[in-house]
Amino acid sequence: MEEESNVTSSPSTRLRHRKRSSTTEAVLDGNPSPLLVNDQNKYKSFMVRTYSTIWMIGGFVMVVYMGHLYITAMVLVIQIFMAKELFNLLRKAPEDKCLPGIKHLNWHFFFTAMLFVYGRILSQRLANTVTADQFLYRLVSGLIKYHMAICYFLYIIGFMWFILTLKKKMYKYQFGQYAWTHMILIVVFTQSSFTVANIFEGIFWFLLPASLIIINDIFAYIFGFFFGRTPLIKLSPKKTWEGFIGASVTTIISAFFLANIMGRFPWLTCPRQDLSTGWLQCDADPLFKPEPFTLPAWIPGWFPWKEMEVLPVQWHALCLGLFASIIAPFGGFFASGFKRAFKIKDFGDSIPGHGGITDRMDCQMVMAVFAYIYLQSFIVSQSVSVDKILDQILTNLTLEEQQALFTRLGQMIGYS
């Protein structure tokens, strides 16, 4: 007898699985004309999708207005929903009944990874927030110092929990869940860590890339809806070249003008060094200071302007727009192939007309990583600054060591 055999599924479970698979295959493969222009119900789905989009954009704008900390909280909520949708992909009801603690173990690893990632990103800003209170500062400094040890201890608890709950005839399913959980953690937290880092460098660096993905997605749908005739890729039967090209042009143009609008608000461009929610003001970075730009000679003579003011960041925005329109959509194609492998239409149904949260975040994940790498490589100065030195002092020295450093600096200044 084989030791690792699957638990027999109930007839109702198998029926639901067959029903879902057959429905999905009909949508993905059986429809001889899956393009939106030939969809008889396209106007109904268009209205549902439009209402959902309006609600999402409205909520997104409100959260951005509230500030860095609330945007980070929004990213956290999105992460939880994404993890829930992905955890459910490989779940099997009969096996889960025999392993009642497996769901709790998955979430234990999830929140341990969350503590590790967010602790590394937000530790300096948390220390900057509580410097006025000596007790809180000591507490935060201790947590920062032993942060990695705490996370490792929690992970070891989860690892031992997993080993101690291994059950005969369930080994294959349990190790599959263990591997699947860690893959989800890599996918979800890689994206989120770069996203949160962008937020605190300035909301601009989070908002512009995210907006470009939204614009590209909307106009790819619109151009494909009205003009789509030529299929783009087999993984996504409804994607067309007309939608792809139309969205690309629209996204690149939008990037140039959106950067000009967003770059004029200190609330969006100033970096946040703590976890407070107060209004931000700072000296504008040279990237966000208007400069005169003379239009090239090939511009037609009837064009009314020969010179215009351009923010230097607008040229960088063109690079972001190019990536958002040409490379980032491949994140969506990857997700489409992933769903086809599991014979599902969407990752979830939490957003009417759009599917699940993961369906909306596939391209955002690719874009967030690129925006961070571009920002750190070509925009953010890598030289040592006063702010960076102070951050290192606040997070790595005790209060007594900081006082001693302050005294020594005073003596040095006095001698000079």
TrEMBL record:
Requires a divalent cation for activity. The keyword Glycoprotein does not apply. PROSITE patterns: CDS (PS01315). Pathway: Lipid metabolism; Phospholipid metabolism; CDP-diacylglycerol biosynthesis; CDP-diacylglycerol from sn-glycerol 3-phosphate: step 3/3. It is found in: Membrane. One of its GO terms (biological process) is CDP-diacylglycerol biosynthetic process. It holds the Pfam family CTP_transf_1. GO terms for molecular function: phosphatidate cytidylyltransferase activity. It catalyses: a 1,2-diacyl-sn-glycero-3-phosphate + CTP + H(+) = a CDP-1,2-diacyl-sn-glycerol + diphosphate. Its main location: membrane. Residues 1-25 are annotated as: Disordered. The chain crosses the membrane at residues 54-83, 104-123, 143-166, 178-197, 203-228, 240-259, 313-335. Belongs to the CDS family. May be involved in the synthesis of minor phospholipids and in modulation of IP3-mediated signal transduction. This is Phosphatidate cytidylyltransferase. It comes from Brassica carinata.
